[in-house]
Amino acid sequence: MKALVFLALLGAAFAAPEDDKIVGGYECPRHSVPYQVSLNAGYHFCGGSLISSQWVVSAAHCLSRKYRNRVQVRLGEHNIAVNEGTEQWIDAAKLIKHSQYNSYNLDNDIMLIKLSRPATLNSYVQTVALPSRCPVADENCLVSGWGNMSANGSNLPDRLQCLRQPIIDDRICKSAYPHLFTENMVCSGFMHGGASSCQGDSGGPLVCNGQLQGVVSWGYDCAMQGHPSVYARVCRYNSWISTVMRNN
Fold first, then answer.
1. Phi and psi (nearest 5°) for 75?
2. What are 24-75's pLDDT values in tens digits?
3. What is the separation, in whole angstroms, between the first and last Cα of the chain?
4. Residues contacting 203, CB < 8 A, separation 6+
5. Catalytic site residue 61?
6. Of 58, 196, 197, 202, which one is the catalytic site residue?
7. Residue from 61, 78, 98, 227 carrying the catalytic annotation
8. Of the listed 20, 107, 109, 201, which one is catalytic?
9. 202: annotated active-site residue
10. Would you put residue 197 in left (φ > 0), alpha (ψ -120 to 50) or beta?
11. CB under 8 Å to 59, separation ≥6 — which residues?
12. Does residue 188 have an active-site annotation?
């Protein structure tokens, strides 16, 4: 069986399910994805989505021991290599993985991050809505991130990358990943390959019709034919998210 690829950057290396970067996408219009955040530990390693002034959704697999005590959430970013004057850098106060996260198949690959202080919402920093329903096949969505742009090798961008892609029917996804795909996952992308999220995009948003429907989770080799990217299905976690936020 092929190894899964995490879509997070672990220093210069990648973790064992493969992390996604945007392959075959385009530079996002500046500050057009104001809910996108970068998780930073001296360098960008994962993405996330701002869902309230003090809470971010990301992927559970992004939380390794090496990052646990030094995660900074960077909001209002476009070019992460320079100071553009729009950024808000806020330390993480709490990082809460789903209690049933499975590191083998990345089931329940979702995490909540409480910021040490509320973000200031403005034209550069905005929240994204949680889903009011689950995604449907062929629904058009946007994935974004600072992940690898090369299916082979490493080409990490400074500027935020975007890709429009559809939701893939669950039956097709189960056929692509017969022993790994669960009801807590959703596939999005292109079965013919050529474009996908990739290493460094992990934890980032998949937004469909203004709602956060996916968290970048895992896949096989980036943009590989027959193997689309897999996301945590956020609609399955509305109650969990509400409970964690209320209790913390």
1. -110, 160
2. 789 999 999 999 999 999 999 999 999 999 999 999 999 975 666 789 999 9
3. 40
4. 7, 8, 39, 46, 47, 48, 57, 58, 59, 62, 111, 215, 216
5. yes
6. 202
7. 61
8. 109
9. yes
10. beta
11. 7, 8, 46, 109, 110, 111, 202, 203, 215, 216, 217, 232
12. no
Q: How far apart are CA 93 and CA 69, in angstroms?
A: 9
pTM of the full structure: 0.90
Which tens digit of pLDDT belongs to each residue from 179-197? 999 999 999 987 765 556 7
The pair of structure tokens assigned to 88 is 């808000």
Contact 22, 194 (CB under 8 A): no
Token pair for 122: 């403005």
Which has the higher per-residue pLDDT, 88 or 190? 88
